[in-house]
Design brief:
Blueprint (H helix, E strand, L loop, with lengths): L3 E5 L2 E5 L6 E6 L10 E6 L36 E9 L16 E4 L6 H8 L3 H8 L2 H7 L7 E6 L5 E9 L2 E8 L2 E8 L3 E10 L4 H8 L3 H11 L14 E11 L2 E15 L2 E9 L5 E4 L19 E4 L2 E5 L4 E5 L3 E3 L13 E7 L5 E7 L3 E5 L14
Antiparallel strand pairs: 1-2, 2-3, 3-4, 5-11, 6-7, 7-8, 8-9, 9-10, 11-12, 12-13, 13-14, 14-15, 16-19, 17-18, 20-21, 21-22
């Protein structure tokens, strides 16, 4: 009998086609401990839609001594997606999130605006701006306001500032309240509704094109590449016919989609070999991705050090433009737009920073006693990169 086990927000949800109108909620799980969880049955009026049989995810199933289900290959998989209508109730709003009795004066930040100019337009003094910016949190956030963002002002009877609101992103708002002659800052967390979604696809020419066709956002696609980047070089190894399946969160606020959330589980088949990753959060709040047998997806070395898909030169021989002959090429050249971040393939210590022959700007990292990696042809160095670090 097929089952789907989904873990989210500290609980696991088990759905079986044999009882399509019931979802069993599991709790009190222990990672790698032989302890069964308690179950509560929730009945839905409408049964969840069918999910392809090969997507038998064991998300959170690593934590219980019940049968561990993983992806099972199907004979025919078409690009598509289906949503599992599983709503996780959001925490109740706090008092600080209640609407103010006075409607705020909204000011949209325009190109070239400064906080000083905005305060002048609202009729506030520079002394009040100075007191607001004395708060470290306000100073850190408001110094980076961008065109198109909005500031909400609530003024007192004498025109003094009582409250300032700044929407940082759909999930967070900075609120600055008057407290006597001073101001206090609070970051209000807005509860988001989490919905579970599923997408799958087959690569024909590009991972990103296949992911877009399946309905995945670029953010989710990059997260999937990062999860499997320890096993698959997404610049070198991807081939036509490779396929993927992803079970992930979509975040909504007031019925409007805000962004994609975490990947709960994913499968990627590359050159006939299938990799499975399952999201797990331990009791200390540390999250990571694991294989069905409990091994962390993170390996000793990252296969792809940059986020892109085009390769200009592989291991082997290549033509040297100066010496006018073929020379051994002991590395892989990744072509990417100027400014693309380069990631270290593993933790290590910087043992060299500077120009090195035809490599141009170069950084060499030492990984333990046996391995070192070299990063070259860089447009500039990252902040804080220096020998010994």
């Amino acid at each position: 009998m097929q089952k789907i086990i989904i873990r989210s927000s500290g609980r696991s949800f088990v759905w079986s086609p044999a009882s399509p109108s019931r979802i069993i909620v599991w709790s009190k799980q222990r990672f790698f401990m032989k302890q069964r969880a308690q179950a509560t049955i929730i009945r839905y009026d409408e049964p969840p839609p069918a999910i392809p049989s090969r997507l038998l995810l064991a998300i959170g199933g690593l934590a219980v001594a019940t049968t561990l289900f993983a992806f099972v290959p199907d004979s025919a998989v078409e690009t598509g997606r289906s949503a599992l209508p599983l709503e996780i109730p959001a925490p109740p709003a706090t008092e600080s999130q209640s609407d103010a009795s006075t409607a705020p004066l909204l000011v949209t930040v325009e190109s070239g605006d400064t906080l000083s100019e905005i305060f002048d337009r609202v009729g506030l003094t520079q002394q009040e701006l100075h007191r607001v910016m004395q708060r470290e949190e306000a100073r850190r956030i408001l110094r980076d306001i961008r065109p198109g963002k909005q500031l909400g002002f609530i003024l007192g009877e004498k025109g003094e500032l009582e409250k300032l609101s700044y929407i940082m992103d759909p999930a967070r708002t900075l609120e600055i309240h008057r407290a006597g002659d001073d101001f206090q800052t609070t970051i209000v967390e807005h509860p988001l509704e989490r919905r579970i979604d599923f997408a799958s696809g087959v690569i024909e020419s590009s991972l990103f094109l296949a992911a877009q066709k399946a309905g995945l956002s670029d953010r989710t696609t990059m997260e999937m590449a990062n999860i499997f980047g320890w096993d698959i070089d997404f610049a070198l190894d991807i081939r036509s016919g490779d396929r993927f399946s992803v079970l992930y969160e979509e975040l909504y606020r007031d019925g409007e989609k805000i962004r994609s959330g975490n990947i709960l589980g994913a499968e990627f088949t590359n050159r006939g070999k299938t990799y499975v990753a399952i999201h797990y959060t331990d009791p200390q709040g540390r999250s990571g991705y694991y294989s069905p047998d409990g091994m962390h997806m993170r390996k000793a070395f990252l296969r792809t050090p940059v986020e892109f898909t085009r390769i200009s030169s592989r291991f082997g021989k290549r033509f040297h433009p100066i010496l006018n002959r073929m020379r051994a090429h002991k590395g892989v050249d990744y072509a990417a737009p100027n400014g693309t971040p380069i990631r270290a393939t593993a933790n290590g210590k910087v043992i060299f920073k500077g120009r090195k022959g035809g490599y141009g700007r170069t950084v060499i990292l030492k990984h333990g006693k046996r391995y070192s990696t070299l990063y070259a042809h860089m447009s500039r160095y990252g902040k804080g990169i220096r020998p010994g670090r």
